[in-house]
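Project standup — Tuesday

K.O.: blocked on the structure for the chain from last sprint. Re-posting the sequence here as requested.
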Amino acid sequence: MKLRFGIIAGIFLAIFTLYPQMKMLYLRGDDWHGHYAYNDIDEVAYASYVRALIDGRPRKNDPYTGRDESPETPQPESLFSIQFAAPYTIAIPARILGIGTPWAMTLAGAFAGFFAALAVFWLIGRLTGDSWFAMAASLVVFCFGSLAAGEGAIGEILFDGFSYPYFPGFRRYIPAMGFPAFFAMCGFVWMMLRESDRQEPDAEARPSVTAESDEAEKINRESHERHETNRNSKIEDRKSSIPRLIYGFLATACFAYTVYSYFYIWTTAAAWLGCLIVVWLIERPKDVRGNLKALAGLAAAWAAVLIPYAYLLSNRSHTMDDVQLLVYTRMPDLFRVPEYISFAVLILLIIGLATKVIEMKDRSTLFALSLSLVPIAVFNQQVITGRSLQPIHYQVFIGNYVALLALMVTVGLLLKPRLRTNAFLPKAVFAAVSVLAIFWGFVECHYTVRVLDDANIERDKALPVARRLEELAKSEPDPHRTTVLSFDGIFADDMPSVAPQNVLWARHQHVFAGLSWQESKERYYQYLYYANVDEKGLDYLLKNDFVSMIALFGWGRHTDRLSSEATPLTYGEIAEEIRKYAEYVRNFSAKDAANPKISYVIVPSTGDINVLNLDRWYKRDNGEGIGNYIIYKVDPL
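H.V.: unblocked you, prediction finished:
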């Protein structure tokens, strides 16, 4: 293999991950304040957690409320504290090098894209032995990832759909940071299988015994041959066990990283190992001393990795269960784009077997078959377990890429005889495929990145406000417990990623463990009250604004995308929520105003924000204008 081809693929993936940032620089020009461009609105929560770790806060922290783990105030586990490996990978170097969160997030995406592409190149290169094909395959896997999920630009190009999301696999840091580990894990397992798969002694090569031989000499010779065969086999076992153990250890280390990085990646990895063991048992049941033994050992090691994970999960916050939308069902799910690709791969494998291009018992064929079964397995595991957990995440964040990987591995195996010829035509074809993949990558960037252009511009415009809050925090004894009320929703959601203070309410606040679900709702009530929203205003929001729906009813009520059992809000539910809000407003007191105590208020300078209710409980100073915002220092009356 020629590594430079993998580096080329990695560079293009790094460019694609940096495209949103370059777009922001182009749009902002000399007015750019230094913020990172997010690829997905959920990245603000991940960035806020990274910021907290860079600041040296404990693993169990809540940047949106400032409630961190301490002996006096123990905190439950959250999605972030359990999936800690990826954010620490970003935060530790950033803290050592003195890099802020914006640059840490930007560079993390680029590194994830580069090394993920390199890992796929290495895996497919090892399987096929052709660097040109491996480069093309690596680019196809990632550049067509959105298309393989039935998402991205294709919806707007061909239909009246919405171009979203942008390169879903590289949402930072989930699932981006887990991608290189996942594909490297696949490569290490393949190397382990290659080391384990030894040829049986060829019976025809053994010396024959003539009829004229003496019977005693025949017995002695056969005994000697068996002894030599056993001795040589033991020597070979010892020789091969060392690299086999090394590859198994590396595969386990990669699996462990995915376990403590992203749920949907590690469960996909576990499903793949299960598929691999099953196909090996069916096709090569006598391979007990070789691959089956190695796979069994690998399964045991991976199970051991999950023991601490299970302990952390048992200490999770109840709010975490509210967010996850677990559905109890045994209905099969066979109509998703990654599964269609898997079915196509199975057809290609059947054609290859029928034409004798590949052999079923070949380990490379079994490897490809196991990969093709993974999307079908993860989308239908509920048939056995009875539980389905937001399968859209498998479709968008990992199953689509595994399906494409299975496709490219299978195509590579079918073309392997031609690859060995080292002819010009295959190279030209693979170069053309690479160019096509790169072209489509830029198409995805063009259509999907612009969806968040306005939000990214507003975030960058507000960055000086966050920097001012950071300066003000230096004079505060405990800035993490200092609360900011922002009447700009985008800034409130983004602020903890660039300033140490917490916020009264933000869209992603409830995904952390600092607040119970009821506390989160009451904080939203308080935010609405300070914004002078009355009952009619809340009625309008609950019927037209999905953020309000999420804040008061949780994820999944505004769309059926996350849960198959999602139901729209009823008029009765809306009326009851309005009644509760009205009661909260009527009974609002100084005690409510002090929980939490607000220290700063951020108001857009352009806009009609009525802060009459706020002024009933707090005294504002003259304010400090920064760009399009005004910062007020407030004190309770």
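K.O.: great, moving the ticket to review. Residues 461-636 form one domain. Strands lie at 326-328, 387-389, 483-486, 502-503, 598-604, 618-620, 624-626, 629-636.
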